[in-house]
Amino acid sequence: MPTELVSPENATLEGVRDIYDSALLDVELDEENGFVVIDDEIVARAKLSDSKERLQLIACYKVKEEAARIDRLELVNRINDQYVIVRAAMSEDDELWVDYAIVLKGGTTAKHIAHATRMFLKVAEMAVKDCDEDGIVA
Q1: DSSP string, the chain
Q2: pLDDT digit string, tens, across residues 33-79
Q3: Which of 65, 72, 83, 113 falls 20 to 30 Å from 105 in CA-CA distance?
């Protein structure tokens, strides 16, 4: 992996894809939608913030249509209460989103990005499995 620091000045989606390729993650660049698709333990997306100061990692989960709104929100609250490393929310499309931000401002290494992404993939999956007490995730 390159030793050059990744910072807002040099961060690109192509560079993020290359970091993940070097870390042996199964990835694909979706230039049209502006993110890298990571297909490892779960499917997630990596997207640079507009300022390129953060690399946002997002895993989306379908929720059963018949799930009550209160059950959806309780799932989000359980994840946010029990897993402080990731953040959960319901999207406008009623998907469960679990996300994590890697700060690029000031610079970070490719190795850190790869390790933080692997950690996110594991924690997001564990959080959904542990907290979905009502079985609402499809």
Answers
A1: ---SPB-TTT--HHHHHHHHHHTT--EEEETTTTEEEEESSSEEEEEE-TTSSEEEEEEEE-B-TT--HHHHHHHHHHHHHH-TTSEEEE-TTS-EEEEEEEE-TT-B-HHHHHHHHHHHHHHHHHHHHHH-TT--B-
A2: 999 999 877 889 999 999 999 999 999 999 999 999 999 999 999 99
A3: 83
Phi and psi at residue 31, to the nearest 5°: -65, -35
Is 41 within 8 Å of 122 (Cβ atoms)? Answer: yes
Cα distance between residue 72 and residue 98, in whole Å: 13
Q: ∠ CA(2), CA(31), CA(100), 5° rounding?
A: 65
The residue assigned the tokens 């698709």 is 37
Question: Number of C-alpha atoms within 13 angstroms, CB side, residue 80?
Answer: 12
Cα dihedral 86, 90, 94, 100 in deg (nearest 10): -30
Identify residue 51 by its one-letter amino acid code: S
